[in-house]
Amino acid sequence: MATITKGLRPGRRLLWLMLSGALGLLCMLSLLGPSEMDWDPTSSFTYSWLEYTDADGNPEDVCNCSAILHGDKEALEQAKLLTITKDFQKSVQIPDEYYINATQDCRKFKLSRKYLSFPLSQEEEDFPLAYSIVVHHKVQNFERLLRAIYAPQNIYCVHVDKKTKTSVFAAIMAITSCFPNVFMARRAVSVVYAAWPRVQADLNCMADLYNISTTWKYFINLCGQDFPLKTNLEIVRSLRSLKGGNSMESEQMPNGKKWRVQSVHQIVDGKIQGTGQAKGSPPFNLPILSGNAYIVVNQGYVRSVLEDSRVLALIEWAKDTYSPDEFLWATIQRMPSVPGSTWPNSKYDLTDINSIARLVKWVWHEGSQGALEAVYPVCHGYHVRSICVYGAGDLQWIIEQHHLFANKFDIDTDSIAVYCLEKYLRQKALAQIGAPWNYFLF
Length: 442
Known about the structure:
With about 450 residues, the chain is α/β, with parallel strands linked by helices. The chain contains 19 helices and 14 strands. Among the domains are: about 30-90 and about 355-430, no CATH class; about 250-350, no CATH class. It is about 40% helix and about 15% strand. The strands form 5 sheets. The chain has a 5-stranded mixed sheet with strand order 3-2-1-4-10, with helices on both faces.
């Protein structure tokens, strides 16, 4: 049957599959087995086998995600109590060894974890994306992020910090080996907070993605504690609406941050520190803009980063600055020769709130609703380096935002926030399509 349908577009494949009748269904069910696909012959043919259900055996199933997403106080209180219960915390932990062992049978692993094995729509298939994911710990966070954004038409580069412990590296390598479109970065670096290697990790993945394929439309960089706020279809439509433009924070640099690019810095004993030496002016007198590490850019932007002589000169100049990820991408975005860029004039400034790249809650911008100085509500989780690590209580606000991704999540401290968000996204993704059940055969 695969030979007969080879080369057919999805719509024609669907017609052929529907004509194949009950025989195809019985064959597939015999292959999957009852433990891998729950099927009720009295129900209509749907994608229910891909839904996250209470029958999956997740410890978080005791929570009412619908109520949590609607901000129900009783449901949120129950979730908060669970997250501080030792037995619950222990029950949600998945050791690195699980992934190493489970991926010995990739087919079973992907079925049991409910990875999408086919594009959910022609629109998505025609608009592939490229992802860079920088990871250094928390394998479970990474795997659930990958599952949430995975689609076979996309391509994913995973950079694992060279300092990462052996079990983490082995588990991530095992997971990536199960997918033809997911791969480890060809060259890994030891990432140092606020130093150049953090940028180099993304640059290495950019080069690998560009060299492996040029069919993808947009590049999105992530870290292991990010999570999507939109389905793949919603991401595709949001990117289409950019009409070739890029989206990221890019603003005039505040005076309080200018020291970062005015003095030379170096890495000493794994940490960045200033040398006291003044830096020269940036090449071509480029205006240095302020931004952050997270970007949504077209393929032309990536090509400029890898090949444009002016951009390469800026990259070389930035290597001994402090936190170059918080100005480099933003500055490149304001260079007129870069595809999808905008002019450097302040009229084109874009804040992190108005861009779509990433939703981040900084502690100094939090406040009560209606407060003049507040940018967003208070964090319902806790803070790391002044950034909110989201709790279940943040979800109602989070899903109302226009951003594609949010940072940060931590399953070790609040797995319910991730569970309810991924369940919400999967249900929405399946509700967005109306194709027959047997599309998954191909």
